[in-house]
Design a protein that fits this description.
Its cofactor is Mg(2+). This protein is 25% helix and 27% strand. It is an alpha+beta fold. Strand 16 and strand 17 form a beta hairpin. The relative contact order is 0.16.
């Protein structure tokens, strides 16, 4: 069961309500969650280092809530989803309707898929969050959600790898293909010089975070790579993005791509990110379509943000929850 750490005061500000620790523990229980721990950033870091009594330079004493999240509730892995879920549950907010929109010129951004990826990492999906406004807190939450998804539904990037880019630094259409590692050259995220993909395998061999992902592609003859119209590398999935297209606090338009060996999970991951952060867009709860063009002439639009209606028998519902209700309809996003 994954656990998220949220700043108590920020959480209460988003919820537009203040609780005592006991009151919020009750809110979690009613919503189906568990408030696992009440701590501080300093205590969390000290605990990881094996000494809770030690002083940690620069660490905050701000109260942190650590909350256990059900394994199948990917939407609750960030403060945005947690707040949205609680508000809807408490009836203080109507469930938003998430939707896709065109590019404004009726020609969506295209990702052209080369046949070479078929036996490497065959699927890709994408979306654009337009006119988004980040704060320090929402920016860090955006990055943290990707990490949480990578460790859970993405199965440490083996099934899905997420790339997020400043759309204003690159030019579509994009190409998704597989190339020999020595033929892929770019400046990776937070580095100052250019490397080949082959060189990155050596560079990251002892990297604390990235070394665990290298075996996914290291022994393959071809590596997947995403490039823009000018041949500029965006990403070497599932390892690292390019420094050229990195997002910052000032990024206004975010291009999200998810490459995958499991298309269903890729769509869930993309929809989750879009639904959690489209609330920060000027046109709230919307995402711009991206068209993925496959070699067999299929052209698929993402994100799907699909809804379906489910009819639930009152008799069955009564038998499960032990109450008496009439026939109702449920709507759920997938």
């Amino acid at each position: 069961m994954p656990t998220i750490a949220v700043k108590r005061d920020l959480l209460f500000r988003y919820l537009e309500k203040t609780y005592t620790d006991e009151e919020f523990q009750k809110v979690c229980f009613e919503f189906g969650l568990e408030l696992d721990d009440i701590t501080t950033e300093r205590q969390m870091i000290a605990r990881e280092q094996g000494d809770e009594s030690r002083s940690v330079e620069g660490a905050s004493e701000e109260i942190i809530y650590r909350i256990d999240i059900p394994a199948n509730r990917y939407d609750l892995l960030c403060i945005e989803g947690l707040v949205l879920g609680i508000k809807i549950f408490q009836g203080s907010l109507n469930a938003p309707v998430f939707r896709t929109v065109g590019s404004g010129i009726n020609v969506p951004l295209k990702i052209n898929v080369n046949p070479s990826v078929a036996n490497v990492r065959p699927y890709i999906v994408g979306a654009i969050l337009r006119n988004i406004t980040f704060t320090c807190d929402s920016y860090m939450s955006f990055i943290d959600l990707q990490d949480k998804l990578h460790q859970n539904i993405c199965r440490k990037r083996s099934l899905v790898a997420i790339g997020t880019h400043d759309y204003d630094t690159i030019q579509g259409p994009f190409t998704y293909e597989a190339k020999a590692p020595q033929d892929i050259k770019f400046v990776p995220l937070n580095e100052a010089q250019e490397y080949t993909a082959e060189g990155l395998m050596t560079l990251y061999a002892n990297h604390a975070q990235l070394k665990q992902y290298l075996p996914i592609i290291k022994d393959q003859a071809l590596y997947p790579v995403i490039t823009d119209f000018n041949g500029v590398v965006l990403s070497l999935p599932p390892i690292i993005n390019s420094d050229n297209s990195k997002i910052t606090l000032n990024t206004k338009n975010v291009f999200i791509e998810c490459t995958a060996t499991d298309l269903t999970k890729a769509k869930i991951v993309l929809d989750t990110i879009v639904c959690m952060f489209s609330g920060y867009c000027a046109d709230k709860y919307s995402a711009e379509n991206v068209e993925v063009c496959y070699p067999d002439q299929r052209a698929l639009l993402y994100p799907e943000l699909a809804y379906r209606k489910k009819k639930v028998s009152a008799k069955r519902a009564n038998g499960v929850v032990g109450i008496k209700i009439i026939d109702i309809y449920f709507s759920k996003i997938y």
